[in-house]
Amino acid sequence: MPSPSSLERSVEIAAPLEDVFAFHLDTRNAALISPASTRILSVEGVFPVVEGALVIMRMRQRPMPVGLTWRVRIADVTEPHRIVDVAERSPFATWRHEHLFAATDDGRTRMTDRVTYSLPAGPLGRLIDRLAVRRQLGAAFEERHRRTRELLEERAREAPAR
Fold first, then answer.
1. Residue 49 · residue 83 · CB < 8 Å
2. pTM higher than 0.70
């Protein structure tokens, strides 16, 4: 079996580690940071998420005319540094998403998304990944990071001093 594909993107956010981590414990926040081409229709689960929790997310992604359902299991929560979700049902054959958080020396937070995935359909899926999916995922995570940074930095500016 061929090795899965991977993607890693990082961003620094001018907000405290605890705030960035807490934001990601509530998967409903995906609607606030998703690219414009993705509309979150619903998110079901218990929030904040805990290890072993199940999250069901329904979304519509342009240009697809139908909604998609993702069913993910929270495989690990290590406060305040790591959240891992693994898809039990998604458009991918396999999907593992690590959210990693680290405080920087200047009080900012370095957030890293590391995704390991594979597409169905064997060699055809690998070709589609090389031709389109890898690029689309990269762009989607860049947009998610931009939106996350803007939102959490705005909240940090508005928060009373600790």
1. yes
2. yes
Beta pairing class for 54-61 and 82-89: unpaired
Question: Across the strands, what pairs with 11?
Answer: 111
What does the chain come to in residues? 162
Q: What integer is the mean pLDDT of 42-62? A: 96
Nearest to 147 by CA among 25, 41, 38, 7: 38
Helical pair 17-25 and 134-158, crossing angle rounded to 10 deg? 120
Please name which of 3, 1, 5, 2 lies closest in space to residue 138, comparing C-alpha atoms.
Answer: 5
Q: Coil, strand, or helix at residue 50?
A: coil
Hey, what are 130's tokens? 């090389």
Domains of the chain by start residue, with CATH: 5-158 (3.30.530.20)
